[in-house]
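Quick illustration, no need to memorize.
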Amino acid sequence: DRLKKALGLRVDLSEPVIQDVEIPFDRAEEFLEFYQSHLNILPCWVCPMVPRATQRPWTLYPMAPRVLYLNFGFWSSVPTSDTLPPDHFNRLLEREVIRLGGRKSLYSTVHFSKEEFWQIHDHDAYCALKDRYDPQWRFCDLWEKVVLRK
């Protein structure tokens, strides 16, 4: 890109999209329509999964037990432009996943605002765990780790 700029040539801008998302099976067709029209990264890995029923709910990564989800994994870049805001496609994806009742793996790139993140991941339950295992809060919280990458 630097060489192209130095030579006065056009630089193709791209946005990395490194994601794994779980979408309820009954909403998968909607997700694929969104995916093909906005991202269309190939290959796209698809893996069925069914969360086990547990005695305690999954408070930090809530998914309905015994419901079929499809995990979609895709890792590449998509063309963008300087007229779009930073992380445009990642934010678009995050909003769509939430709209469809899905979840986004936290080892993927995460772009949620702090408020959005804690609406999805039970902040009270997290704070209780944090108070128990890191009572002085010496380490970063989960949002800082996965979004700010501290």
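The first helix runs from residue 2 to 6.
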